[in-house]
Amino acid sequence: MTEMSFFQAVLLGLVQGLTEFIPISSTAHLRIVPALLGWSDPGAAFSAVIQLGTLAAVFAYFWADILRLGRAALGSLVSPQWRAHPDARLAWGIAAGNVPIVVLGLAFKDTIETDFRSLGLIAAMLALVALALAWAEWRGEGEGAIGGLGLKSMLVIGCFQALALIPGASRSGSTILGGLLLGLRRADAARFSFLLGIPAIFGSGLYQLPKLLQGASADGFPVTNLQLAALGVGLLAAAVSGYASIAFLLRFLNTHTTGVFIVYRLMLAAVVAGLWWLGWVS
Question: What is the residue range of 90's domain?
């Protein structure tokens, strides 16, 4: 873990929380913001671990849904009656939907942590997913709800979630895109995106946590107590801002399209591509 001040940790935590659930790519912002401020890249490990703060926000916001789905999943293991329950099907569908991101994440681990963090690639993915969202919006909002999703549909959305392995794609943006293309209402697509992301965020954070604690910097020394404290403050900032962004997005998508996020992504892509091409950021 590179040396990081409390200010940097708080700022990056706020950036993570505000951008994790809004479809503008938190990983891209965690790469772009330090570059613009002249800070070193916090790295893929920090980007994954700081997501545990936003995972806490998901648990806080959706605790009733999570308890219900967990009870149904456990019940389905011992009772035939539970196996036909919609909550059990949704719970196991969420588990299956995370298979693509796990398999591809492990297969391309080294590339994700190095080549995929190029600002040129980030700019391209910001633009590509924005254009795909624009096309989905042009097709019109569907009427589908989460309860109507079958296993095949959840696997398809899980494949869209795997696009988030490339910074700039956005996990929420990719999964919301998948949900819209399958005919979900915008708010339902966002809600499913949050629930689907729980295993992926948890697994990614835990996988990268040992690397971060053992020291991913060039000197290879373990992190200090001060660095751990800074990480803790960053996680708290991510949790608080993440909770606020979940509440905002669910209300927003009940009455609005994703158009404002599409425009933002395209503008950010143009700025990042220009700065990267000019060599002003790297």
Answer: 6-278
CA dist., res. 235 & res. 67, Å (int): 23
The 3-state secondary structure of the chain reads CCCCCHHHHHHHHHHHHHHHCCCCCHHHHHHHHHHHHCCCCCHHHHHHHCHHHHHHHHHHHCHHHHHHHHHHHHHHHHCHHHHCCHHHHHHHHHHHHCHHHHHHHHHCHHHHHCHHHCHHHHHHHHHHHHHHHHHHHHHCCCCECHHHCCHHHHHHHHHHHHHHHCCCCCHHHHHHHHHHHCCECHHHHHHHHHHHHHHHHHHHHHHHHHHHHHCCCCCCCCCCHHHHHHHHHHHHHHHHHHHHHHHHHHHHHHHCCCHHHHHHHHHHHHHHHHHHHHCCCC
What confidence tens digit (pLDDT) does each residue in 100-140 have? Answer: 999 999 999 889 878 888 999 999 999 999 999 999 999 98
Question: pTM for the full model?
Answer: 0.90
Residue 1 forms part of a structural domain: no
Tally of structural domains, the chain: 1
